[in-house]
Amino acid sequence: MKSGCVSREVKKHRSIQLPVLKNSPVQESGIRKSRTSRWRAAALIILNLLMIAHIIQWRITGTTISPIEPSETMFTLQQGAINAGLIFFSLAILATLIFGRFVCGWGCHIVALQDFCAWLLKKAGLTPKPFRSRLLVYVPLIGALYMFVWPTVSRALSNPDSPLIPAFSNHLVTSNFWATFPPVSVAIPFLFICGFVTVYFLGSKGFCTYACPYGGFFSLADKVAPGKIRVTDACNQCGHCTATCTSNVLVHAEVKQYGMVVDPGCMKCMDCISVCPNDALYFGFGKPAIAVPQKIKKNFSLTWPEEIVGAVVFLGSLLAVRGVYGLVPFLMALGCASITTFLALRTWRLFRAKEMSFYRFNLKSAGRIQKAGWGFLSFAVVWIGLNAHSGWVRYHEYEGDGAFLKLEIPDELALAQINPDPWLSPIDRENIIDGKNHFQAVSNFGLFVNSEALSKLAWFEYLSGDAEQSVQLLGEAAPLQQGQAKALSLYYRGTILNRLGRYEQARTNLDQALEERPDLILARQEKGESLWQLGRKEEAISVWREAVQLNGRLVLANNQLAGAAASLGRSAEALVHEKQADQFTPNDPVYHWVIGLRLQSLGMNELAEKHFQRAIQLNPEFRGRRNIRPPV
Questions:
Q1: Are 566 and 604 within 8 A, CB to CB?
Q2: How many structural domains is the chain composed of?
C-alpha cells in the first residue's frame, strides 16, 4: 500500500523534476503564487474589453479607427494604406527591440485566450505539457516572411517597373471595420482551435510557439533586446521559475548558464520573478542574448526522422486546409497544421511503442492499446481524415480556379446575348467542362458551401447554355457572401435575368448589388436596361446619367443615353451623348458588335446598326453574322 502511494505521488510531480525548497512561502505544490499573474490577467481582460468597445463604437457610429491588428500591415506593404495596424505593429517591434518580447505576454488577445484555456485545463486537473520540436519552431518566422516580405518581393518580380514602396495613403479611419476579418462562423472555430486545442496538445503557448507569424518577428527582435530577465547571486537553482513559466522556458538552467533568460520564447510575463523564493530574479538591461553563445542542450519530443516526417505532414496539412471552402484564414490553417502534425506523429508512436501515456491517461500498456488510447486514436483519425478530405476539396477548388482563369471570352462578350455559345473558342469549351467537373465535385461532396466556387460554377453553367441553373446558383451564393463578392454575384444574376427577360427580378438584384457597392457602374447600366424594358424610360435615363456622372468615359451608358434621347425625339441631346461615346470607343470590331447587340435588345435599332456597320468595316467577315460567333 505504501509503495503504491509513493508511486502515485512520484507520477503526480514527474513533469517538474526540479528541487523544491523546504523553507519558503509555498502552496501545496511547493511554489508560491505569482503576484504578477493577476496584474497580467487584468491587463489582458482590459485589452479584450477595449476590442469589444472598438467594435461596438463602429457598429453605433459607422466609422472608427482601422483594426489595430498586425495583419493589417500587409495592406500597407501591398497598397500603401497607412492604418492603425501598421502603427501598432511598428511600435510593438520597436518596443521589443528595447524591452524584449513583453507585448506578446501583456498585450495579445490570443495569449489571453491560451492562458484562459490553460487555466481551465488546470482546474480540470490537466496541466498542459509542452511539445518540443526542433524544426516546427521556425514556422512562425517563415509565416512572417510569407505574410510581410513575400508580397513585396512577388510584386517586384512580377512587375519590375512598379515602385518597391507603393504610394502611401491615409487609412487610419474606416467604415468597413470587418472587411479584412473572417465571418463569425469562422472566427469562433478559429478561437477554439487556436485556444483550447493547441493548448491541450502543444502546451500553454502552443499557438505562439508553432503558428503565430507575428511572434516570428518578435522572437528576432527579442534576441537583440537589452531588456532581459536576469539573476543575482541569491539564486540556488530551486526550479520554481521553470515550473511556473507558461512559455515553456528553462529559466533556472538559462540564468545559471548565461546569467539571464536568452530563449526568445520568453514573453516577459514576470511570473518567474514573482515566485522566486529568494528574489534572485529581476528584469534589467545589459548585453543582449545574441551576444551569448548557446550551450544548453534541450530535450525534444521528437527524433530527427520524426522531425522530418512532421515537417512534411505540417506542409501538407497547411496546403490542404488554408483557404478551403474560401473560409480558413492563414493563421487558422497554421494552427490546424500544428495539431495535425502532433496527432499524426503521436498516432504513429502509439502503434510502435509498448507504453504510452498522455496527461494522466494511459494510452497503451504492455503493448495493448487501452480505452483512452482508442479514444485518442479515434479523435486523431477523425481529425486527420478531415484534413485529408479538405485536401481533396482544396485540390478541386484549385483546379477549378485554374480552369476559370484560363477562360478567354470577355464577360461583356458572353453577356451581350442570352446564348454565349457562338462566341466560345475551343479552349473555352475545354475549360468550361473541366471547371464544371471540379466545382461540381466540391459542391456535391464538400462539407461546407464555398460561395466563391459556387459563383464560378454559375458562370460555367451560363457559358455552357444553362442560364436558369446559373441564376439559381448565384442566388444561393449571394447570401453567403459580403462586400464586393456579394455585389458581383448579384450583378451577374441581375444581368442574366435581364437577358432572360425577367426585368423586375433583374432590377431587384441590381438594386441589392448597388446597396453593397454604390460605385459598381456596371450594375447601374444594367439597372437602366431593366427600367427601360419595363417602360419606365425616364427612370432609366436618370440611372444612366448617374453612371455617366460617375465616369464620363462610359461608352455603353453614353450610347444608351443617345439611343434613349433619339427615341424620345431629343435629337440635340442624342447627338451630344453619341459624340461622347464615339470619343472613347475603341476601333475593335468585337467591341462594336457587343455595343450593337446591347442597343438592339433595347430597341435602339438605328444606333445599333451604326455599330454593326462599323464592326463590318473593321472586319468584313462580320457581315451577316449577327447571331454567329464573329472571327476574333
A1: yes
A2: 4
Do residues 546 and 558 both lie within one domain? Answer: no
Q: According to the model, what pLDDT value does residue 94 have?
A: 97
**Which pLDDT belongs to residue 8?**
39
Instruction: Give the CATH number, domain containing residue 582.
Output: 1.25.40
Q: Which of 263, 291, 319 is the last residue in one of the domains?
A: 291
Question: Is residue 490 within 8 Å of residue 442, measured between CB atoms?
Answer: no
CB 96 within 8 A of CB 222: yes
Residues 522 and 558 in one domain: no
C-alpha cell at 180: 479584412
In terms of Cβ atoms closer than 10 Å to its own Cβ (0-12, 13-18, 19+), residue 541 is buried
In a domain, 406, yes or no: no
* Dist CA 430 CA 448 (whole Å): 27
Residue 129 placed within a domain: yes
* Residues 323 and 252 grouped into a single domain: no
Within-domain flag for 209: yes
- pLDDT, residue 180, reads 86
199-219: b or e for each residue (b if 16 or more CB lie within 10 Å)? bbbbbbbbbbbbbbbbbbbbb
Question: What's 516's domain CATH number?
Answer: 1.25.40.10
Q: Report if residue 404 sits inside a domain.
A: no
Owner of C-alpha cell 456597320: 613
| Residue 6: half-sphere exposure toward Cβ, Cα within 13 Å | 3
- 135 & 263 share domain: yes
Alpha carbons 433 and 461: distance in angstroms, whole number: 10
**What pLDDT is recorded for position 9?**
37
For residues 261 and 228, give the distance between their C-alpha atoms in angstroms, rounded to a whole number: 6
> Has this prediction a pTM greater than 0.70?
yes
The one-letter amino acid at 10? V
Q: Which amino acid is at 521?
A: I
With b for 16 or more beta-carbon neighbours within 10 A and e for fewer, the 235-271 pattern comes to: beebbbbbbbbbbbbbbbbbbeebbbbbbbbbbbbbb
* 44 and 125, same domain (yes or no): yes
Q: Given this model, what pLDDT does residue 135 score?
A: 96
**278 and 134 in a common domain:** yes
Residues 6+ apart with CB under 8 A from 568: 537
Residue 220 shares a structural domain with residue 243 = yes
Residues in a beta bridge with 285: 227
The residue segments making up the domain with residue 246 are 18-291
274 lies in the same domain as 308: no
Residue 136 pLDDT:
96
Q: Positive or negative, the Cα torsion across 196, 202, 206, 207? A: negative
Rounded to the nearest angstrom, the gap between the alpha carbon of residue 13 and the centroid of all alpha carbons in its chain is 41
Mean pLDDT in order along the chain per 10 residues (632 residues): 38 41 46 92 96 95 94 89 95 97 95 95 92 95 94 84 83 90 88 93 95 95 96 95 92 95 95 95 94 83 96 98 95 97 97 94 96 97 98 98 96 90 93 98 95 97 96 97 93 97 97 95 96 96 94 91 94 94 91 92 93 90 58 38
